[in-house]
């Protein structure tokens, strides 16, 4: 979880126009998605819902919907975050 001080510091670096854009993103993303996609944060180690997920399908960006990975590229990992051996072309 990003510390409140770090989040406040991040917001303080934005221009009013940038802050307006980020507030719009906040309405479209979950708090965790916003932290990771917009604030360059990360989820806590061994906590993500996709860590042990190996179902068939594709993985897409939560922000723009772009397809990033296919299930065949996901590999078991011990680092605490999902890992992929390749991305979609």
Question: What does it look like?
Answer:
- The N and C termini lie far apart (32 Å).
- The chain has a two-stranded antiparallel sheet with strand order 1-2. It has a two-stranded antiparallel ribbon with strand order 3-4.
- By secondary structure, it is of the alpha+beta class.
- The chain contains 3 helices and 4 strands; from the N terminus they run αααββββ.
- The protein has helices at residues 4-12, 16-28, 31-37; strands at 58-60, 67-70, 74-75, 83-84.
- A hairpin with a 6-residue loop joins strand 1 (58-60) and strand 2.
Give the SSE map.
Blueprint: H1 4-12, H2 16-28, H3 31-37, E1 58-60, E2 67-70, E3 74-75, E4 83-84
Brief rundown of the structure:
The chain is of the alpha+beta class. The protein has helices spanning 4-12, 16-28, 31-37; strands at residues 58-60, 67-70, 74-75, 83-84.
What's the SSE pattern?
A: HHHEEEE
The largest beta-sheet arranges its strands as: 1-2
What coarse outline follows from CA principal-axis ratios? globular
Number of strands: 4
Number of H- or I-type helical stretches: 3
- Give the helix proportion (percent range): 25-40%
Mean pLDDT: 91
Q: How widely separated are the two ends?
A: 32 Å
What's the oligomerization state?
single chain
Given the helix and strand composition, which structural class is it?
alpha+beta
Spans of at least 5 consecutive residues whose pLDDT stays below 50 are none
Largest sheet: 2 strands, antiparallel
Task: Output the radius of gyration.
Answer: 15 Å
Give the amount of beta strand, in percent.
Answer: 5-15%
């Amino acid at each position: 979880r990003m510390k409140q001080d770090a989040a406040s510091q991040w917001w303080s670096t934005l221009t009013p126009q940038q802050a307006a854009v980020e507030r719009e993103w906040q309405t479209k993303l979950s708090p965790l998605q916003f932290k990771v996609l917009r604030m360059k944060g990360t989820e806590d180690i061994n906590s993500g819902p996709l860590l042990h997920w190996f179902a068939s399908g594709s993985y897409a960006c939560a922000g723009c919907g772009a397809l990033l990975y296919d299930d065949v590229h996901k590999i078991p990992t011990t680092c605490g975050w999902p890992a992929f051996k390749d991305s979609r072309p």
